[in-house]
Amino acid sequence: xxxxxxxxxxxxxxxxxxxxxxxxxxxxxxxxxxxxxxxxxxxxxxxxxxxxxxxxxxxxxxxxxxxxxxxxxxxxxxxxxxxxxxxxxxxxxxxxxxxxxxxxxxxxxxxxxxxxxxxxxxxxxxxxxxxxxxxxxxxxxxxxxxxxxxxxxxxxxxxxxxxxxxxxxxxxxxxxxxxxxxxxxxxxxxxxxxxxxxxxxxxxxxxxxxxxxxxxxxxxxxxxxxxxxxxxxxxxxxxxxxxxxxxxxxxxxxxxxxxxxxxxxxxxxxxxxxxxxxxxxxxxxxxxxxxxxxxxxxxxxxxxxxxxxxxxxxxxxxxxxxxxxxxxxxxxxxxxxxxxxxxxxxxxxxxxxxxxxxxxxxxxxxxxxxxxxxxxxxxxxxxxxxxxxxxxxxxxxxxxxxxxxxxxxxxxxxxxxxxxxxxxxxxxxxxxxxxxxxxxxxxxxxxxxxxxxxxxxxxxxxxxxxxxxxxxxxxxxxxxxxxxxxxxxxxxxxxxxxxxxxxxxxxxxxxxxx
Length: 514
What we know:
It is built from 19 helices and 25 strands. The chain is an alpha/beta fold and 514 residues long. Helix 8 runs antiparallel to helix 10 (184-209). The protein is elongated, with a radius of gyration of 32 Å.
C-alpha cells in the first residue's frame, strides 16, 4: 500500500497501480430479508454507516446493529402507505454525486450524505402475478423506489457499488471481505447486472399490462444465461395437476410430444418417451401398463429426465411403474384418483391432463432478419401410401410395423432412421449429418438395449441416394424397409433389397425435420 487519498487506496501489485474505492456508507432497502443478516454484520464490523427504511430498518434494528432511518436524512416520513419512502433529493443526491469539488460542495451545502453502496431486492412482481389475479395486489407489487435506486447507483458505478438483488449478495460479501474495497471493474460488472435486473423487471410489468396477456416470462431460456418468454395459452390445452413451472426446454419437449401423440392418438394404448425433442421410447400394446413397459424398454437410459406422454388414462398399476423413474413431465388425457395421488407425491414432478391437441395451422420460427412460416407437418401415413417395389412382399404384421415406423420417423431430427419390431421402437439414430451414421446408430442402439434386429423393419425420413443403408439392414437381418423414394438412384436400392431378400416400400412422402 502506498497511501490513502480521501477514501481511495493505491495498491501496487506487480508494478501496476490500481485505484480501489472504499465503502463508507450504505443504503439498504430490500423486500426479502433472506441472507441479509451476515452482510449487515460485516458492514457494521467495517464501521460502515447504514441507512435504511421501512421493514428493512426494523429488521436491522432487531439485530442490535446501529442503523439510520432515511427519514432522518429527508426530514419526511414514509407517506402514502409506504409508496414514497426513498424518493427524495437527499437520498438520490448522495447516490448520484460525482466525487469532485463541485458535487461535494453541493452535498455539503444541502447536508446530503454520500452513499457508497446501494443494496436492493425488489418487490416480487412476477411471483405476485403467478399467485393472484387481484389487480390491486399486483399493482402494489410494482416497485418504484427500489428500481429507481438501482438505476441511480448503476449509472454512478464509477463511485457507487450496486447490489440489485439478493442473488448478488455473494459478490457483496467478497467486497466486504476485502475491507469494503472495490475496483471499477467490479462496480461496472454489478452495474451491468443492475440494468439487467431493471430491464427484466420492467419487461415483466409491460408484458402483464400490454394487450397481449399471453406473453409469460419463463425462468430462463434454453440455457440459464438466456432470457425467455412464452406467448400463448396453455390452459386451453392442459389442466395442471402438479409440479413446478414449465421451463423453455419443457415446453419445446412437450410440443414435440403432442405432435407425436397426435399421430398415435387413435391407436390402442400408446406410450411415448421424449428427450431433447426426439422420441427415445414408443410402443403400442393392448393395455396401458404394457405399453409403458415396452416404451421404456426401448431406451431406459435416455428416459431418465424425459417427457412422457400417453393416449390413455393413467391407472394406479401404471402409475406405480412410472413412479420408479425420474422424469420431468407426464402428459395424459386423465389420471384416476389413486394414480394422481401417488404421482403428486413428488412436488416438482409436472403432471398435465391433456384436454385437446393444439389446433395451430402455421409453424413459425425466427430466421436471419425475419421469420420462417410453414404449415405444420400433419401428414399422417396410412397403409395405402406404401407402394411395394420389391419381389419380396410384406405380411400384415410387417405392414403395421412399417406404418408405425413411418409415423414415428417424421418426429425425429434429420438424418434419421428407426427400427421397429412388434409395434415397439427398438432403435433409432437421429440428428446425424450422414444417413449411414444414422443407420449404424439405430442398429447399434437396438443391440445395446438388448433387442434382436432379426425380422425388424426399418424406416427412413428421406430417400436412400445409395444402397449402403440397405446393405446394413441386410447384415442386421432386417426384413422390410420403408422410405419415401425420389432419388435418381432408387433402383440401386431396390435392386440391393431384392438381392438381400428384403421387402421395400416407397411412400412418396418425405419427412425432413431440421
